[in-house]
Amino acid sequence: GQQLNQSPQSMFIQEGEDVSMNCTSSSIFNTWLWYKQDPGEGPVLLIALYKAGELTSNGRLTAQFGITRKDSFLNISASIPSDVGIYFCAGPQGAQKLVFGQGTRLTINP
Amino acid sequence: EPEVTQTPSHQVTQMGQEVILRCVPISNHLYFYWYRQILGQKVEFLVSFYNNEISEKSEIFDDQFSVERPDGSNFTLKIRSTKLEDSAMYFCASSGTGPPYEQYFGPGTRLTVT
C-alpha cells in the first residue's frame, strides 16, 4: 500500500519560532490532510487540501499540496506552547480509508 | 461544535475476553470508521461503515472484529476474544455528506489486554 513519510520525526524549537514539516509519498495522492494529536487524545483535523499547488491557511497554520502530488508541507508561524503535539499527514487509499504518516513530534521550549 | 464521543475512555480486560467499544458519531454524518494506534506508532485504518454495512476493511480487521450500528446514534466495535496485541488506542471517526476524507475523530478508548 501507499506509505507516507514525514520529516522531521521530531522538532525542538523556541516559542515564537516558525516551524516547517513535510510529508512525502512514493505515489500520487489526490487529497492531503493534516491532523494534530495531543497526548491521550484523538487526531484533530487541521487542514484539507484537494488540488495540486493549493495553499490553504488556518490561522497561523499554512499547508501546501505539492505540484507533483507526491508531497505536502505544513508551516506554523510564531509558535506558541499549545502548538505542542504530534502532527500527522494523511491521504486516502481507496474509497474511504485514510493512511497516516508516522508523525512529527513538536516540542516547544518557552 | 458537534463532536465524536467514545466510551469508555479506558478499558482493561483479560486475554480471551470480549470487549465492546462504543462511539457516538457526529449526528448528520453518514460514514463511520474505526482506527487503532498502538503506543508510539501511527494511526492505522481498521474498517469503514456506510449504509449499515462494512464498505472497506483492512487486513487487521479479521474474524475477531465486528462492527454494528445498533440504533440511530451509536456505532460499536466488538473484539470477540482479545489478544495481548490488541492493546492500543481505538479511535472512532465519522464524515459527512461532504468529502469523505474529512474524517473527524473521537478522543479514543485505550484498551489494555492483560
Folded structure, characterized:
The complex is a heterodimer of chains A (110) and B (114). With 110 residues, chain A is mainly β. Chain A contains no helices and 11 strands. Chain A has strands spanning 4-7, 10-14, 19-25, 32-37, 44-49, 55-58, 61-65, 71-76, 85-92, 98-100, 104-109. Chain A is globular. Chain B contains no helices and 11 strands. The radius of gyration of chain B is 13 Å and the shape is globular. In chain B, the strands form 2 sheets. In chain B, strands 2, 4, 5, 6, 9, 10 and 11 form a 7-stranded mixed β-sheet that branches. In chain B, strands 1-3-8-7 form a 4-stranded antiparallel β-sheet, with no helix packed on it. By secondary structure, chain B is mostly beta strands. At the A-B interface, strand 5, strand 9 and strand 10 of A face strand 4, strand 5, strand 9 and strand 10 of B.
Largest sheet of chain A: 6 strands, mixed
Query: What structural class do you assign from the helix and strand content of chain A?
Result: mainly beta
The main pleated sheet of chain B reads as: 7 strands, mixed
What does the average pLDDT of chain A come to? 94
Give the overall form of chain A.
Answer: globular
Short description:
The complex is a heterodimer of chains A (about 110) and B (about 110). With about 110 residues, chain A is mainly β.
What are its keywords?
A: 110 residues, mainly beta, B: 114 residues, four-stranded antiparallel sheet, globular
Helix and strand topology:
The complex is a heterodimer of chains A (110) and B (114).
Chain A: E1 4-7, E2 10-14, E3 19-25, E4 32-37, E5 44-49, E6 55-58, E7 61-65, E8 71-76, E9 85-92, E10 98-100, E11 104-109
Parallel strand pairs in A: 2-11
Antiparallel strand pairs in A: 1-3, 3-8, 4-5, 4-9, 6-7, 7-8, 9-10, 9-11
Chain B: E1 5-7, E2 10-13, E3 19-24, E4 31-37, E5 44-50, E6 53-57, E7 65-68, E8 75-79, E9 88-95, E10 104-105, E11 109-113
Parallel strand pairs in B: 2-11
Antiparallel strand pairs in B: 1-3, 3-8, 4-5, 4-9, 5-6, 7-8, 9-10, 9-11
